[in-house]
Design brief:
By secondary structure, the protein is of the alpha/beta class. It folds into four domains: 5-123; 135-248, Alpha-helical ferredoxin (Fumarate Reductase Iron-sulfur Protein, Chain B, domain 2); 254-361 and 541-617, 3-Layer(bba) Sandwich (FAD/NAD(P)-binding domain); 364-538, 3-Layer(bba) Sandwich (FAD/NAD(P)-binding domain). It is built from 26 helices and 21 strands. It has a five-stranded mixed sheet. Strand 15 and strand 16 (498-511) form a beta hairpin. It is globular. The structure holds flavin-adenine dinucleotide (FAD) and iron/sulfur cluster. Iron/sulfur cluster binds next to helix 7, helix 8 and helix 12.
Length: 618
């Protein structure tokens, strides 16, 4: 592109809007020029292209009336587009495309003399990625894979946000976090304001910032993503503020502020994200809250399921400590059901009950040999693997995985199982190497020869329900995938331990009711795979014993409890429900939203109750 175009561009810009498109590298710049020319875009409307060490800019003038089309095309080509419309009075009538950033100080680039430093904000238009532990290092530990942003990187990423007036990211967030506001506060270094904005709508920012499926929620809705560019790293920014809050120690003091005690008591069944959120909201309003948890640990799937390399324990522990400082009581190892019923809770002084018992009862395929030693459900495998490390005082035994482990299923839980198994195998090799030899760890790993983790899935990779980032991460760590394959039976040895599984090849047939093509077995293709451990990650359902012991509760055929979607009220007066128990296996953020919604309704309900005897007499 010739610099001679500059004066022409300046002239044309009097009647059209001029914008500068910044690209992350030279090849994208070249590609964009080629694409615009192929589109039939007149070359004389393309201005100077500046190439520098980190500077790849193209100045482009719009066609009157087709400004938005051009902006959308440039954004789609991966550019960060900036316009200085305020400098060009004749262009005032043209509102920039919402994905375009307005920089009122923008100067028209004038050839190579143009100071590239002035374009730093535009160049920083590409998502700033935090460091990630390389796979060869991360398989040796259960430490978090992604250490998160440093303050300077967080501010630089926050600076990319366009503060859209009608932000689609907020609509994409199930909790409706006020994303542009918290990002603006972060950008100005006002971290406390930023976390306060977040906590208006979420009780678990450190958790959600890490585990939410951002690509299908806020980040997938970000205007930059819609235009084909890199969305703002909303989850990482949320996590940055939550980690700052955790490290600065401000949280316990702030949450300890609660309304005066109301004398009302609420029982919460289950300590997952729905129950924890509800407990926090009600305790802050002065109500007494007791959480009944069947397991000896608090947090539901956050505690027993999601591995520490995705959700470190201190993040969850901080939320639990804050709840304790609000006076929330936890009764662990206490299962509500036939022996301690909801009716008993209501008649023993609790004014309301919230059922947040999740859906963590594993479904099984009903295949011969599934009860052999060494065949685990994902729930059992993950909880043993995690809790034996996080709470050794509970005497959990980590699973023994041998040399070959097969995971059946292809959801996020299956990916967590596969990556956990890889780490357990490496930990085992490390232990054996320490006691046997002085070889370095990598060499010992090769010699001791862990043969691997294989994910077996009956459909193809395209149908895998797991998040793409989790699949890629598992592949990087050496997990193998066997698609269009299903187990037929598990084969044990004389001691009743699984040693092999018979599988059959599958083909994809007609789409089912959800539009997914149904897998169909191919007769005569059976084959045997040697395995030492099998983990079934095939789905979950709710605890039917609890539901059957609660008369009057309307339950769907799937085992999900029916509630009023606006309030979480069940068909039983005084009983609310939310989270996976209502939705089936779902997400942390939706469980949290359900907990908040039910808490608001329970708070209203408690205020309508007649005063208790002691309140009347006092
Ligand atoms: C391995 C794994 C990985 C996941 N990864 C993600 C992820 O990355 N992102 C995401 O958004 N979601 C993820 N999820 C899903 C998410 O964790 C759940 O949707 C969420 O935890 C549901 O919250 P909940 O409060 O409804 O129930 P849960 O978190 O399931 O908690 C329910 C609690 O109730 C207890 N309980 C059950 N029955 C009783 C009873 N009768 N009496 C007393 N207590 C009882 C259980 O022990 C449990 O502690 C994952 C789930 C699993 C299993
Ligand atoms: S995060 Fe994306 S959609 Fe949301 S305000 Fe910023 S640029 Fe706009």
């Amino acid at each position: 592109m010739s610099e001679a175009n500059v004066s022409h561009v300046a002239e044309r810009s009097q009647s059209s809007r001029i914008r500068t498109a910044a690209f992350p590298n030279e090849s994208r710049l070249e590609g964009a020029i080629g694409a615009l020319v192929r589109d039939g875009y007149p070359e004389d409307l393309l201005g100077v292209a500046i190439r520098g060490e980190h500077t790849y800019l193209l100045t482009v003038v719009g066609h009157a009336g087709r400004e938005h089309e051009l902006d959308a095309r440039l954004l789609g080509l991966g550019a960060n587009v900036v316009t200085g419309a305020s400098e060009l009075p004749a262009a005032y009538g043209v509102a920039p495309h919402p994905g375009v950033r307005e920089d009122h100080d923008m100067k028209l680039p004038m050839g190579r003399e143009f100071p590239a430093a002035a374009w730093a904000p535009a160049i920083a238009g590409y998502r700033i990625e935090p460091p990630v532990l390389p796979p060869r290092d991360r398989v040796w530990s259960f430490d978090e894979v992604e250490p998160g942003y440093t303050p300077d990187k967080a501010v630089a990423e926050a600076d990319r946000c366009l503060r859209c007036p009608d932000p689609p990211c907020v609509r994409g967030c199930p909790a409706h976090n006020q994303i542009p506001s918290f990002i603006a506060a972060l950008k100005s270094g006002e971290y406390q304001t930023g976390i306060d904005v977040l906590r208006q709508t979420t009780d678990l920012p450190g958790v959600c910032g890490r585990v939410c499926d951002k690509a299908r929620q806020c980040e997938g809705s970000c205007i930059l993503a819609q235009e084909g560019g890199d969305p703002i790293a909303i989850g990482l920014l949320e996590r940055f503020l939550a980690d700052w809050e955790l490290q600065s120690g401000v949280r316990p003091g702030r949450t300890a502020r609660r309304a005066p005690a109301t004398g009302r008591r609420v029982a919460v069944v289950g300590s997952g994200p729905s129950g924890l959120t509800l407990a926090q909201e009600l305790a802050q309003n002065g109500h007494g809250v007791t959480v009944f948890e069947a397991l000896p640990v608090i947090g539901g799937a956050l505690a027993w399921g999601i591995p520490t390399f995705r959700l470190p324990q201190p993040v969850l522990s901080a939320e639990i400590d804050a709840l304790r400082s609000l006076g929330v009581e936890f009764r662990l190892n206490t299962r509500v059901g036939p022996l301690l019923t909801v009716d008993q809770l209501l008649s023993s002084g609790f004014d309301a009950v919230f059922l947040g018992a999740g859906a963590d009862v594993a479904t099984t395929p009903g295949l011969p040999g599934e009860d052999l030693t060494g065949v685990y459900s994902a729930t059992t495998f993950l909880s043993l693997a995690k809790l034996s490390r996080v709470t050794p005082e509970n005497c959990w035994q980590s699973p023994v995985i041998g040399e070959r482990l097969a995971v059946i299923g292809a959801g996020n839980t299956a990916m967590d199982v596969a990556q956990t198994a890889v780490r357990l195998a490496h930990a085992d090799m490390q232990e054996r190497s320490a006691s046997q030899t002085t070889l370095d760890v990598a060499e010992t790993a090769m010699r001791l020869g862990f043969r691997g983790v294989m994910v077996v899935y009956r459909r193809s990779e395209a149908e895998m329900p797991a998040r793409r980032e989790e699949i890629e991460s598992a592949k990087e760590e050496g997990v193998q995938f066997r698609f269009l394959t299903a187990p037929v039976r598990f084969i044990g040895d004389a001691d009743g331990r699984v040693r092999a599984m018979e599988c059959i090849e599958m083909a994809l047939g007609q789409p089912d009711r959800q539009g997914r093509r149904a897998p169909v077995p191919k007769p005569g293709t059976e084959f045997i795979v040697e395995v030492d451990t099998v983990v079934l990650a095939l789905g979950y359902q709710s605890d039917l014993a609890l539901l059957e012991a609660t008369p009057g509760l309307r339950v769907e055929r799937t085992g999900n409890v029916t509630v009023d979607p606006l309030t979480g009220r069940t068909s039983r007066t005084g009983v609310w429900a939310g989270g996976d128990l209502v939705n089936g296996p779902d997400t942390v953020v939706r469980a949290m939203v359900a907990g908040r919604r039910a808490a608001a309704d329970i708070h209203r309900y408690l205020q309508t109750l007649p005063l208790k005897e002691q309140e009347v007499s006092s």
